[in-house]
Amino acid sequence: MRRSHRIGLAAVTAALAFSGAALADNEEGMYGNTVVCSYPDGKMTKVYVQPGGDFTVVRNGQTIKGKWVDDGTNVCYTETDPAPPAGTKNVCVASKPWKVGDGWTVNDPTGHSCSAVVAAGQQ
């Protein structure tokens, strides 16, 4: 094989490997599990992430639906149904392969901080 063909093949192989990694689904560890967000006052919000970009939140007895998008750096969650009040912010967290037991601090759409953890199963 000619040197130029080997270099071209190596470049294509590297590009395919990179694109495969970029297509990894970092939300997969949340599917079938519950993200429990606990607030200092004892209240909890539960988030159920589904494949394909959908999620459901149960907050203060209300069920809210929304969409999530992973750009490879951040995953952002946008509440859609019911439509959120004006000024409601999206929740964005680092895009990484979350798994049961992982935890982080996050600001909810109202700007309040909570401690989130991925809990096993639907709770």
Secondary-structure element string: HEEEEEEEE
Q: What is the top-level CATH class?
A: Mainly Beta
Write down how many β-strands occur, each being a DSSP E stretch of 2 or more residues: 8
Contiguous runs where pLDDT drops below 50 for at least 5 residues: 2-22
Question: Structural class given helices, strands, pairing?
Answer: alpha+beta
Rg for CA atoms: 19 Å
| Reported CATH architecture | Beta Barrel
| Overall morphology | globular
Number of domains: 1
Please estimate the helix content. 10-25%
Strand order of the largest sheet: 6-5-4-3-2-1-8-7
Largest sheet: 8 strands, antiparallel
CATH topology, what is it called? Answer: Lipocalin
**Mean of pLDDT:** 83
Straight-line N-to-C gap: 58 Å
- Please count the helical segments: 1
Strand content: 35-45%
Characterization of the model:
The chain has 123 residues and is an alpha+beta fold. It has one domain (26-119): Lipocalin. The protein is built from one helix and eight strands; from the N terminus they run H-E-E-E-E-E-E-E-E. The protein has one helix at 3-22; strands spanning 34-38, 44-50, 54-59, 62-70, 74-81, 91-94, 103-107, 113-119. The N and C termini lie far apart (58 Å).
Q: Which features characterize this protein?
A:
single chain, 8 strands, 123 residues, Lipocalin, 1 helix, 8-stranded antiparallel β-sheet, alpha+beta, globular
Secondary structure layout:
Elements: H1 3-22, E1 34-38, E2 44-50, E3 54-59, E4 62-70, E5 74-81, E6 91-94, E7 103-107, E8 113-119
Antiparallel strand pairs: 1-2, 1-8, 2-3, 3-4, 4-5, 5-6, 7-8
